[in-house]
Design a protein that fits this description.
Length: 261
């Protein structure tokens, strides 16, 4: 969690920062031990795949005797997932599941009885959604229907999450291999913490980055600009991006590099 999110969360309760990688602009996952946790804490929270910085928890942090709650928005269904390891998972649909406006929540039933009583009830209480089959209010039916189609596609055409992971590994491998061998582009993330789907990269020269983004856009590559808070470039190669798209990007980057030696 960054300092800003930390500050915002403190409005609702006490927050203890168990791990922090701001010393190297979040380019690695901090190694957290049980001793780093506040003994009084109720739950450990992680953002499992950091969409902006391109890092990913390959192993979940220790959380003995504590609940584990995770934001999986950018990595859900990009690989097999053991939901039993978490007390609660939430994920916005817009990256790997379907249209924006739907949020998937997977929660342990015994956690439903633990909500605090000082917040407005009903809409802010997951029990309400469970008790009403997620139809307490009018759900976004079109979005949910689309998520259903995406899940069918994952099962029937991709062949399940094991195959999705293989495809994503092939895609990420193509791009990381090129980045690690390029004399112009590089990825700043610690190798063992690299994301499968969000791959940031830079040339080291902000002007050259700008030129690359503009030329890439002309050539039909959209959304390669890095997040506004970090600059540079970022390839978000979610489930919907085919291997061919990543190959085309790598070819384009190679040609750009050759033009600039
Ligand atoms: C995309 C994303 C969100 C949701 O952000 P939006 O601004 O609503 O798109 C939340 N958490 C993570 C990890 C994300 O990748």
């Amino acid at each position: 969690m960054d300092k800003e999110s930390h500050r915002r969360s403190e409005k609702l309760g006490r927050v203890h920062l168990a791990g922090d990688s701001s010393d190297k602009t979040f380019t690695y996952i901090p190694k957290i031990t049980q001793e780093d946790l506040d003994p009084d804490t109720d739950y450990v929270y992680i953002c499992e795949n950091n969409t902006i910085y391109g890092t990913k928890y390959k192993n979940l942090p220790p959380h003995e005797g504590k609940r584990l709650i995770a934001d999986l928005s950018s990595c859900i269904f990009t690989e097999p997932l053991d939901v039993t390891q978490y007390d609660m998972i939430f994920a916005g649909a817009q990256k790997n599941l379907g249209p924006a406006g739907v949020t998937l929540v997977i929660i342990k039933k015994d956690l439903l009885d633990e909500q605090r009583d000082d917040i407005p009830s009903a809409m802010l209480d997951y029990k309400t959604y469970v008790d009403h089959d997620s139809m307490y209010n009018t759900p976004p039916t079109y979005g949910i229907y689309m998520v259903g189609l995406v899940c069918k596609w994952l099962e029937e055409q991709i062949g399940g999450l094991e195959n999705m992971e293989k495809i994503n590994q092939e895609k990420a491998g193509l791009l990381y291999d090129y980045l690690d061998n390029s004399k112009m582009f590089s990825n700043p993330v610690a190798v063992e913490d690299r994301s499968l789907v969000n791959i940031p990269f830079v040339t080291g020269d902000p002007e050259l980055d700008k030129e690359f983004i503009a030329k890439a856009k002309e050539a039909g590559f959209e959304n390669l600009k890095g997040h506004r808070t970090v600059g540079g470039m970022r390839a978000s190669i979610y489930n919907a991006m085919p291997v061919e798209g990543v190959k085309a990007l790598v070819d384009f980057m190679k040609a750009f590099e050759e033009e600039h030696v």
